Amino acid sequence: MTRIFSAKSTTDEVLQGLTLSGKRYLVTGVSSGIGIETARALVAHGAEVVGTARDVAKARSATDKAGFELEVIQLDLADLANVRAASTKLVGDGGTFDGIIANAGVMATPFGHTVDGFETQFGTNHLGHFVFVNRIASLIRDNGRLVTVSSNGHRWADVDLADPNFDYRPYDPWISYGNSKTAVILFAVEFDRRHRGRGIRATSLMPGVSHTNLAQHLSQDDLAALGKRIATELASAGQTFEFKTIPQVAATSVWAAVVAEGDAIGGHYCQDCQVAPIDDAPGIRIGVKSYALDPEQAKLLWAKSEKLVGERF
């Protein structure tokens, strides 16, 4: 019997009664917040987890504080030479994974560029994971999962394939964030199409809103304005805004990687431990914009991304 979960479900509730002994997962961004809780829950239920972090010492301190241990490798998604080195090490080690949870990311950063000259949010949230995941795709076991952590912020902007790095248009941190998070969804759509022959399914998700370090570039006034904006946009759809706890925001990642049926979530976008409906109305609301699931746009983004990073997959 399939168990039904909700916005209030936690990681441990999602995994209740499951033993993950013999399972192995990779989680990017295990130095704080959702990444730490995702890894903790998987380890607590018997899985082996490999985590990545830009600052390994910070990640080890965070996992020690959370009371669990895991292997942590250094990965800076804003530096493709580093991404390639990390992926080469993993492939050389030969360990396989039942699932990869591409969790790491940045939000609403000031205008800037990655080491390779890409706009910071697009380069980090999308291109870094695009290269990393594709280079280790052979390590995903048959019938495994790729879970990419996106956001309902994708609803603020489609990816602009003509100007992904804001070379020609005025920079807006929220439009940039929307661009990058739409790209994260489209990446999962195309990865799913390419790898489903081995039973590997890819999905993307909105974890929910919680108090994490993701908002480190926002002032208190910025945060207040963001909360008001989201609440107003949700209210227009008859929905309400509620913060989640850390175990609640990590629950959909764990559900998608371990519990959900692959055929049900493959190529889709999830929220609150279920597949989200398509909703093309403006503003933030529960649901995914259809442009983020467009298979033809996903193919175009893949080709554009390969051209930008100079590598074919």
Structural class: alpha/beta
Order of helices and strands: HEHEHEHEHEHEHHHHEH
CATH superfamily: NAD(P)-binding Rossmann-like Domain
CATH class reads Alpha Beta
How many beta-strand runs? 7
Kindly report the CATH topology: Rossmann fold
Give me the side-by-side strand order of the main sheet: 3-2-1-4-5-6-7
Describe the fold and architecture:
This protein has 313 residues and is of the alpha/beta class. It has eleven helices and seven strands. The protein has a seven-stranded parallel beta sheet, sandwiched between helices. Helix 4 packs parallel to helix 5 and helix 5 runs parallel beside helix 6. The longest helix is centred in the middle third of the chain and has 23 residues, at 173-195. The chain is globular and about 45 Å long. The mean pLDDT is 94.
Lay out the secondary structure.
Layout: H1 11-14, E1 24-28, H2 33-44, E2 48-53, H3 56-66, E3 71-74, H4 80-93, E4 97-102, H5 120-135, E5 140-149, H6 173-195, E6 201-206, H7 220-235, H8 246-249, H9 251-259, H10 262-265, E7 269-271, H11 295-309
Parallel strand pairs: 1-2, 1-4, 2-3, 4-5, 5-6, 6-7
Helix pairs in contact: 4-5, 5-6, 6-11
